[in-house]
Records
---
Amino acid sequence: MTATESPATEEPTEPVDPNEVKVTINGHDVSARKGELIIAAAERTGTYIPRFCYHERMSSVGMCRMCLCEVDTGRGPALTPTCMFPVAPGMVINTESPVAKAAQAGIIELLLANHPLDCPVCDKGGECPLQDQAVSHGPGESRFVEEKRHYEKPIPISDLVFLDRERCILCDRCTRFADEVAGDPLISFTHRGNETQVLTFPNEPFVSYFSGNTVQICPVGALTASPYRFKARPWDLEEAHSTCTTCAVGCQTVVQSSRDELLRYQGYDSEAVNWGWLCDRGRFNFEAPNSDQRLGTPAVKSADGTGLVEASWSEAITKAAALIKTALDTDGPTGIGIIGGARGSNEDAYAWARFARTVLHTDNVDAQLLDGLSPAVLTLPRATINDAAAATTVVLLCGDLKEELPVLFLRLRDAADKRGVKVLEFTPKSTGMTKYSWRSVNYLSGGQARIVRDTIAQADVAEQLAKGPVVIVAGTANLAESDQFQIDALAALLDAAPTATVLPAFRRGNVVGALQLGLTPATDGMHTDDILTAAAEGRLALLILLGADPLSDFPDTTLATRAFAGARSIIAIDTFVNHSSQHADVVLAAAGYGEKRGYTTNIEGRVVPLAQKVTAHGTSRPDWMIAGDLARALGAQWSLDSVDAITDAIATNVAAYAGATREALAEATDGVLAVPESSSALETSGAEVPMSSGYNFKLVVGRKLYDQAISTQLSHSLAGLTPGAKLHLHSLDLDRLGGPGAPLKVTSKTASVVLTSVADDGVPRGAAWVEFNQSNINIAALLDAASPATDVRVETVS
Amino acid sequence: MSESSATTSARPRRRVVNLPAHVGPTRASAYVCEAVSCLSMQSHDVLLGLGERVAAAGLTDVEVKRVGCLGLCAAGPLVQIPETGELFAHVVPDNLGGIVEALAAAVPGGERVPEAPFFSRQLRIVTENSGRIDPESLEDYVASGGYQALRTVLSTMTPAEVRDEIARSGLRGRGGAGYPTGLKWNTVAKAIGSPKYVICNADEGDPGAFMDRSVLESDPYRVLEGMAIAAYAVGASIGYVYCRAEYPLAVSRLHKAIQAAGRSNYLGASMLDTEFSFEVDIRQGAGAFVCGEETALIASLEGGRGTPRTRPPYPAVAGLWHQPTLINNVETFANVAPIIRKGGSWFAGLGTATSKGTKVFALAGRVVNTGLIEVPMGTTLREIVFDIGGGIVDGRAFKAVQTGGPSGGCIPSEFLDMGVDYESLIGVGSFMGSGGMIVMDETSCMVDVARYFMDFCREESCGKCVPCRVGTTQLFMLLERITTGEATMDDLAQMERLGHMVQRTSLCGLGQGAPNPIFSTLRYFRDEYVAHIVDRVCPAGVCSIEPAPVST
């Protein structure tokens, strides 16, 4: 090269990626990313480094020493824990040098020195990282003949999880998960040296909504979950990628079965949604589909009208079609109401929406049971979970996410705790997010809009909201009040932060899909409360329950009961005979979770797959097929005859789902977003309801993760975890009423109940908080769907 | 023994010393050692008794004073008359007549050290005040030159100049690894983050080592002064002394020193009327050896389980609460003030080419003069053991000296003429460590010594990483088999192989150093291992091995 040449201008140099770090792994040049750990860079580029303690979703601790490799940073090769060090330019990594292999083999040998080698009776055997890596990286034999450590064989550390300390290799994964991810640091290392063990604290079991994750990430069989213990061997399991529909977060799962029985759900690491985590309710409720109480055949009301008797499908469909025909004849389309549809697939929802509109010609369809916000929220600019986790400010205007959408709680907890996202919470009672919030503001039922306006007027809050992206998580926080209050508060927030996006905290599995696909009044149809009122007043000829159980779930038991008495006929499509469907004239057996394929839509509008893993129970059929059966029995035109046909029809006919074609869905790694175009502003009322005279508390009814939901109650491992309903009052309020523990009488204008009281300073003074849908008390009896808020009188029992 | 303990219990325990002040200039003084080992031999009663006897004898120009460690712990309780250099050993509270007579006869003539080689061969920098000042008296410390260095630093030197002076001195970390102190201070000074912390590592845990305890008990202000200078040099404002709770006297003296220094503006806000502020607090460890490892110490200080973590990042960059943190050992800080007072070049003129200054050793084991000594780097083992230490007890044969604690090694007699410094010790398979020096004679079984140290490491392993947690236990079990005569030569090979694996793969120094006693005893005393295994005999007669069954 001569001095006159100017290579910088003559030759176009390759664009340099500032985030690229060039390293050598086992002699190959590899492009790693800035800040990437060696172990991760190696794995991403095809070199697996053995590991036990390293987990990509948790902080590295470098304690198992299994990932030691020879790394040369210019000062000669040195054994380096590759999970602790990020790549650096020019690094030469050798994962298979004799020194590295000897170190890895030595670690395996030491781990096996104390491991019981009871693989033949261990649930992990066959999918065990220790077993696998002992084969792939171990010395093949042990030279240790000394006695192993001995501990009492599995000890229960919670209602769901057993710990076998002999198998434990002390990798710190479960304890780190409990502390870092779940925020429930209830398991910890105790003792030290060779006596180190994982244990709970005395008299404090590992009570966590997320305990099942520790079982999944345990690299040995030390942690096992009671619902799966000794149920199957891994090599007998078949699996399919699916989505959990226990709530609407849309956690990605792997559904596993053996001999046509669902046996386990495992979390699947979706970058966009759940990062591999599941809540225990979603993970362990596979017991419900296997329950012997499942409805396997249709049933019709017995001749004497006292109960249900099994029927053939043709008999049941004929009877149901006859009831529909009668209803249409007597009252016309407006005399029919359809409630439910939030538990099925997108295809089920779309088929039923089409059935309602084109066969029944009714607009009286509602997937919600007066327990969610107006579907108008779904037309606001939508945020994804990752948007929220990366926002500057997250405003929570919703129920307790830890109870309602647990994995969303995990993601937001992570964002707030580790990523500096500021959380501003508006809540009627402290929640799981309160301690991670930058600011948590309580309000009394009905006062939220005013409190929101007052709060965002404060200089520091206004400044925080102006700093960067704002995501508002909007949902129902109180089943004892009208959703209009939350809508008013949401509108006030959107006024202050007009560029904010909204993540709807809707709860039921596919409620977003159901609402977006038409299971909500499009024009002047009736919502669930109006349908039930019409039924109660004798104005409803036919009530169709699409997997809905208003007698359990509708927040006004009086109205629901009157509606069931007043409805002239009832058709239920359900997987179980429940409180509501037992009153039906015809019950059509529906296929359940894992028994039908299709797609579901999560709170973000993400369309994600549902897998069919087992044969549908008995002769049960998917909802979409039942819609077709009924349509044909009614002599209507019907073309939605396969899941694929309906998926295609959705993509063709529903604007928001235009991108969710079968081809796109098949290729997408994290689903396809289907969000309706943003439309008009929210309808606000501005009303605030004063306390009615004679009452002294505003009632707040909130949800707990474990309640009387049938999928929980028929999962025997979970059924006992329901906390029961208690009356939560601020301790100063409770002092006046005789202190905690005392039974107190709670009277609303519709009913009164007696509840045990507990002091809870997370409840603001003047509010009374009670768990919804618990076995000991039916709090919904106190609620009145027609009242915007529920005032109660709390008094000592005389 | 039972008699004297009965009399002790009748007397008040640790009455506050406020002896009648003598009038006029001091003609003679009696320095009564009140460090822990003499205290445990009733030196406090000696102090009180001596005060009474001196007063009764009407010696108004005699001062009776509590001082820190006089060094010759084996001969405690000790009383010294500095004017004459007379040292009274094994003093009994009921027999103080000789001391009073000597005090009455003493002629003032400057300070003299006792003439025995134990004292004359030492060079005292760190322990210059030990046995000379009242450790609980700030006035005494100031009167002996204390806080001159801090005053100089705060009034005339920039932080960079202080760091340069320390770098010039060649001072290396006295905790054992010998990292250049000036380099560490510079790293912390340049690290980005605020606040910065200074931590004094007083979690001395090596078996047989008590240098740091003695310094803290004898001269606590010196450590605080060193920390304050360090804090100024690196830009720190908060300091912690992490001291093991097994040192209650050190903790209490340090606590009093912090309070007194704070009252006199030697600590706290706007120290010595400058803009510099520095607070010090004590944190007590709960008896885990591994908490002497700096990252484990920090974890413990933060309230967590005392377990180490991978370095880097080093504490100098991300230490306590992820902030830049300077961690030095007690003895390192104790060297700081003299270096500032006398200059880095002075210090660099002492010792060997690579190891400057002096080193304090706790001399223990089968040596006549057990106690605390300070010698220049490069002093030979022979001088230490035979001149200062007075040779082996009962005239037995020297076998080895163990240095470096559980990560160290045993040095046999062929190296007795080796000068002791960081490099020479590593060269013979041992380690400087914090300064424990255990002398062994022919009655010590080297396999048993290795077994003892492995038992210690196994007990003290925190359990975090696999090689240390499982490996030390397996090594211990192998050593047990050897000492009970159940092992084979294959076991010996297995032990060496496992030792190398533990050394190379462990997370922190505890595990990495744990096999050292095995390696060094194997290096010099392999025949003893073979005797245990093949001949089923313990040459030193320590291990009880069942004789091999006679095969017919």
---
Amino acid sequence: MSHLAETFAAAKADNRAALIAYLPAGFPSHIDCVPVIAAMVENGVDAVEIGLPYSDPLMDGPVIQAAVDASLRAGTRIGDVMANVAGVASTGAPTLVMSYWNPIERYGVQRFASELAAAGGCGVITPDLTPEEAGPWIEATDEHGIDRVFLVAPSSSSARIDLVAQTCSGFVYAASTMGVTGARTSVSSMAPKLVARVRESTSLPVCVGLGVSTGAQAADVAQYADGVIVGSAFVKALLDAPTPSAGAQAVAALAAELATGVRGKSSANVL
Amino acid sequence: MTEHLTNGSATTVPDVAGRFGIYGGRFVPEALMAALEELDAAYRAAIIDPDFTAEFEYLQRTYTGRPNPVTDATNLRAHAGGARILLKREDLNHTGSHKINNVLGQALLTKRMGKTRVIAETGAGQHGVATATAAALLDLECVVYMGEEDTARQALNVARMQLLGATVVPVTAGSRTLKDAINEAMRDWVTNVDRTHYLLGTVAGPAPFPEMVRNFHSVIGREARAQTLELTGRLPDVVAACVGGGSNAIGIFHAFRDDAGVALYGFEAGGDGIESGRHAAKLSVGSPGVLHGARSYLLQDDEGQTIESHSISAGLDYPSVGPEHSWLRDSGKATYESVTDVEAMDAFSLLSRTEGIIPAIESAHAVAGAIRLGKRLGPEALILVNLSGRGDKDVATAAKWFNLVDTGAEGAV
């Protein structure tokens, strides 16, 4: 059983959804990235996506754009991403990379998959790669035992959901809404229906991302999904924090709130 | 009758996956795949529908002003090694450039798909103005994304778009130019795709845009080929065009694709010179990569981060290019060279003074390239240049370049 599969199985045995958190590599700084994520893991994050900062993040809203720009300005390179992966993987949490396609293609698909595996990474999420264009990537990820996660969207036809689900390993990423990353006041009503449609195509876990930022939203999504993915809310907490230590405290508190949520409780019940 | 809107030749690309060799394809968020499939189906149904083609051709004739002429630039000859230079006058189209050809086609498709809103990116403002124009004509809501740097250097076109009823959104991300305007338009599209068509302005982006935009512009080459034959009794030795994203170039190249004796030349922006690193010469010094939904030549670093382009011409200031140009380059079917800001502005001035035609700075790159080729090929050569746009929008930039602006008390230009 893969590391990711074990994590989903353990959450399921616990009768809850898994909590998956995103932060860009090199953010909030090269020194603080791994410790901040480790604090999130200590507070209930089950798996981690490390974003590979890219110059043209066209699926991301302003919050993640700002973080990625800051990381790139600080000089983050793919070697730094791999180092962050190794640091986070050492916490024991399954660690994936979220990357737009061009950096992986330019770096070399074999080289990328091989170095990620060596760093202890377990999977890659590719938000702008479709199964139709993924031939060499499927070979490379198979060869190096890396899970490859593609996205489905509310607009996806049944035929496309089938295709994406069959190409995925690890889990299927269901985009909750039509749009880019960023917190929203409510999680789209399209998400439960999309998850149900994906389940008709695959027995893989289905995780929901885009727009989840609070424990209450996580509790809502956890009722129908195997995993809840939160990105912009963590990034925003760090961007808004006056000091690095305040940022670490804020993301730890948010992780705890979301972890309570994925256990089917709203944070109000706990406090 | 509709042959020109379909591929119409066994030698043409793309294939069914939208690939031109290794270039092109669809590298987009899954959320957009349904819209691309819908667009592809609507486009293929439209181009074999006589009602659609009749309406498209009617608008080209009565609204755009097609066919526009070919002008024999006899005064320019002496400056171009004696070569005979013909100018295809896309600058005379309504809205001032070739962009209207594609815009009318896509705006009609938008109506056909039952969508009520169009969004567009623009660099120089030519595509934004054309889109705002078609949106006004066909009663579509219109939002144009434009890099903040470009809104400053093309302020006149911002005002034109607003006069036409469009909303212009300055984009402050990244290099604040065309590349970032496309990112922002893609973000809007993925969010509002159910009622919005992304009216992409060049032969780049995911399939079917490169093929569709090419075919809507193919009227340029079809007219120019017939006009050249009528005027000179033969085909040109060279067809020359500027290349930013590459739509005007593909538009004029396409009709000559099976003419073995015709050399196709694209001129991209050399900016401050290739060696300076400040340029937009992706076909000269870039490498294959994926940006904005397609694989093509790209200015990128060793880890796939996009390198910002530079050019005096906002319309050529783009780090990638349509995938068909990459395919034409690799297969040797077309040749690409770069023209610096200085060379382009010299040609801008020369054409203005010798022929009484003020070209767009984009198009001045093609004129500079033609002059270079004329000197190389000599007086027997016949060179057809796509004069893709007029220079009204560039008067402020040119006045500054040539120090025509009196900053003293008189204040007159």
